[in-house]
Amino acid sequence: SMAFLSYKIPVTWNKESYEDLEYFHKPVSDKLLRLWRSRGYNHLTVNGLLYDQSAGRKMPIFTKTLDEEFGWLKNKGYAFYKMEQMTIMPSHVDRYEMYSKVFNVSSKKIVRILVMLENWKSGHYFEIDGEAQVNWKAGQCYQWTCQSHTAANLGTEPRYTLQITGHV
């Protein structure tokens, strides 16, 4: 059995709805940064730019259609992610520490869905559970709980994705 799911949803968005969001850099923990540095990831940017629901940020209108599409998920959170050229997110496993605290739910019940907002572009990379993913189409989704994953943008255009976190 596959350790992650891969499926496609209808595209209900356009580039204007996410490319001009006020993305910001959210640092990773010192512990994770030290681990990545120890593995030789000494380039400057080790994670991308985020636009999430913290600080009362408004989500684009199209996330309403995703509320329905992913109606089986409770307490959904949306985070848009922009990886500029030469951004690398080394291999890691999501711990969901804050999420499980806030919603008082075991991390085993937490689901992460990565929605590819655009068709694959040269140099855009995603790997999950040791499997390379390229050539995706807009609307492609990857769903997992605790699989290790990594992402990179070695191309010339930004790589846009949407992370949905929820629980069953």
Terminal CA distance: 20 Å
Number of helices: 4
Radius of gyration: 15 Å
Estimated helix fraction: 10-25%
Largest sheet: 7 strands, antiparallel
> Residue-averaged pLDDT, rounded?
92
Question: What are the secondary-structure elements, in order, as H or E?
Answer: EHEHEHEEHEEEEEE
Derived from helix and strand composition plus strand pairing, the structural class reads: alpha+beta
Q: Order of strands side by side in the largest beta sheet?
A: 1-9-6-11-4-3-2
* Uncertain stretches of 5 or more adjacent residues: none
What is the general shape? Answer: globular
Description of the structure:
The protein is of the alpha+beta class and 168 residues long. Helices cover 16% and strands 36% of the residues. The strands form 2 sheets. A 7-stranded antiparallel beta sheet has the order 1-9-6-11-4-3-2. Strands 5-10-7-8 form a 4-stranded antiparallel beta sheet, with no helix packed on it. β7 and β8 form a beta hairpin. The longest helix has 9 residues, at 30-38. The chain is globular. The two termini are 20 Å apart.
For the structure shown, list the relevant keywords.
single chain; 168 residues; alpha+beta; seven-stranded antiparallel sheet
Short recap of the structure:
This protein is α+β, with helices and mostly antiparallel strands.
Topology:
Layout: E1 5-8, H1 16-19, E2 24-25, H2 30-38, E3 49-52, H3 63-69, E4 74-83, E5 87-92, H4 97-103, E6 110-116, E7 124-128, E8 131-133, E9 140-144, E10 149-153, E11 159-167
Antiparallel strand pairs: 1-9, 2-3, 3-4, 4-11, 5-10, 6-9, 6-11, 7-8, 7-10
